[in-house]
Design goal:
Elements (H helix, E strand, L loop, with lengths): L25 E3 L4 E3 L7 E6 L21 E8 L2 E8 L3 H9 L28 E5 L2 E5 L6 E3 L6 E4 L16 E2 L6 E6 L8 E7 L5 E8 L10 E2 L3 E6 L2 E2 L2 H5 L6 E2 L4 E8 L8 E7 L2 E10 L5 E8 L5 H6 L12 E7 L9 E6 L3 E4 L11 E6 L20 E6 L6 E4 L4 E3 L3 E3 L9 E11 L2 E10 L7 E6 L10 E5 H7 L1
Antiparallel strand pairs: 1-5, 2-32, 3-4, 3-33, 4-5, 6-7, 7-8, 8-9, 10-11, 11-12, 12-13, 14-15, 15-18, 16-17, 18-19, 20-21, 21-22, 22-23, 24-25, 25-26, 26-27, 28-30, 29-30, 30-31, 31-32
The protein binds 4-hydroxy-3-methoxybenzaldehyde (V55) and fe (iii) ion.
Length: 494
């Protein structure tokens, strides 16, 4: 267990309060539970929890995204709950541990590294745990995934699908088709740093690389997420761009451009990347996460995303000379509709939900029209600042259930000083039951005092509050993304 020494870290928002480095690996059994864990909630809630093992040696606001990946597990078994957390043994982490200090400089800029870092992979695998084909992967968009043992959380090595993968990179936001079990993925900057090359990747239900095809994006963009429908793959491009010369000069990886077009690339799943049709979107917009996409009876494609008028990360706006405050980003759940058979070459936007992020749908409706979904947002009536933390600097305090069949939204509003991390959805075996949401809730009890509870919430009735809460044994940094793996799927993989 690494010894925490937060004093060695700079006292800026990336390293204080909720973001204070913890650097502790542990396993704790039999956590305190209040209420009753539903029988459906049997399995493991995997969480990506970035935590810097060493203090930075360069001044870099973007370092909030470079913290070493930790894989956290909250296991539910017969109403009992245990937890464990462990560093992902990336080449980068192991090299720094061996050196006893940080070797890697600014966020996604290898030209700022110490000489000993030369030739060592830079990815920290800190963004999403992905459970597919009996394998647990820790992902980050700047590199290939690392495979982790779901039981021990031990790192088993970097994944190249038996040597088949050509792309240098692999998204943290895969999409799994519920009918075929195929995992759709992509990698941008696939052909090297700041390249415009994007790899489209399909992993079959058995975990083999079934397809990899490369194409050129309109420009080198931060492509964080994408979407599928039953028949299409959708590649969104927002104008946050990288430039090799800027990186070589020691600059920032990303600069956002308010005056550049966004794009939506539309390709048939049974087609070829050379058939991608590009639809123009509004200038200057940005999105990290899509809720879903689907085709309607008329063949129109709808693409639902947490959109805003500029990049949501303050450090990227600052690097871009963009002076838009967080509340003025005009966030919204935006639906872009395109007609793949029509003449129009622009997207048509309708607003279908409020500002916010971390959209969630049942895995069973991936790529199909969702009747409802969940997301996190901010309470407009809160009488004080939100809890500081995470990459945006402020944590969400409202969990919403949005109904797309006409029913009003439902909200679970936390009191001041409490905040949500991204929930995962757990399906129910009871027909007609919407299942459960499992999420980590952080409670601030003092300037530097936090406690954490894992909440189980009825997905169809979040306003009722948790049906069970689990008290976590130690301080936790904010999670990025999570993944639910059922006990049955874990057992089948052994
Ligand atoms: C995001 C997170 C990242 C990253 C790029 O949530 C984008 C968005 C935790 O790392 O590298
Ligand atoms: Fe993400």
């Amino acid at each position: 267990m690494a010894e925490a020494d937060p004093g060695a870290f700079p006292q800026n928002p990336n390293y204080i309060g909720l973001n204070t480095p913890q650097r502790a690996e542990y396993a704790v059994e039999d956590l305190a539970v209040t209420g009753t864990i539903p029988a459906d909630v049997s399995g493991t809630f995997f969480r990506a929890v970035p935590d810097p093992a060493f203090p930075p040696f360069v001044d870099d606001a973007g370092a909030i995204l470079s913290a070493d990946g930790m894989i956290s597990a909250v296991r539910f078994e017969n109403g009992k709950v245990s937890t464990a957390i462990r560093y992902v043994g990336t080449a980068r982490h192991l090299a720094e541990v061996a050196a006893g200090r940080g070797l890697f400089g600014k966020y996604r800029n290898p030209f700022t590294d110490r000489p000993e870092a030369a030739g060592v992979g830079r990815t920290v695998a800190n963004t999403t745990p992905v459970w597919h084909a009996g394998r647990l992967l820790m992902t980050k968009e700047d590199g290939r995934p690392y495979r982790v043992d779901p039981a021990t959380l031990e790192t088993l090595g970097q994944v190249d699908f038996g040597g088949a993968l050509r792309s240098d990179t692999f998204t943290a936001h895969v999409r799994i088709d519920p009918a075929s079990g195929e995992m759709f993925a992509f990698g941008y900057e696939a052909a090297g740093l700041a390249s415009t090359t994007v790899a489209f990747i399909v992993i079959d239900a058995q975990g083999n690389l079934a397809r990899e095809q490369w194409f050129e994006a309109p420009y080198c963009a931060m492509m964080h997420d994408f979407a599928i429908t039953e028949n299409y793959v959708l590649f969104p491009i927002y104008p946050t761009t990288a430039d090799l010369a800027r990186l070589q000069a020691g600059g920032d990886h990303w600069v956002h451009h308010q005056d550049l077009d966004s794009w939506l690339g539309v390709m048939r799943r049974d087609g070829d990347v050379s058939d991608i049709r590009w639809f123009r979107g509004p200038k200057g917009v940005s999105c990290y996460h899509m809720m879903n996409a689907f085709e309607d009876a008329d063949g129109l494609i709808h693409f639902d995303q947490c959109l805003s008028d500029s990049n949501a990360f303050p450090f990227i706006r600052e690097a871009s000379g963009i002076d838009i405050a967080q509340p003025d980003l005009n966030g919204r759940l935006a639906r872009w509709t395109v007609d793949p058979a029509g003449q129009a070459d622009t997207v048509h936007e309708t607003v279908i939900g409020p500002p916010g992020d971390f959209p969630v749908i049942p895995a069973s409706v991936q790529g199909r029209r969702q009747s409802h979904g969940w997301m996190l947002t901010m309470n407009p009536e809160r009488r004080g600042p939100p809890v500081p933390g995470g990459p945006v600097g402020a944590m969400f305090d409202v969990l919403l259930r949005l109904d797309f069949t006409g029913a009003p939204p439902q909200a679970l509003v936390l009191p001041m000083g409490s905040c949500f991390n991204e929930p995962v959805h757990v399906p129910s075996s009871e027909p007609g039951h919407e299942g459960w949401l499992v999420t980590m809730v952080d409670h601030q009890r003092g300037p530097d005092a936090f406690v954490h509870e894992c909440w189980i919430i009825a997905a169809g009735n979040p306003g009722a509050g948790p049906v069970a809460t689990v008290t976590m044994p130690h301080r936790l940094r904010p999670q990025v993304h999570g993944w639910w793996a059922s006990a049955a799927s874990l057992a089948a993989a052994v």
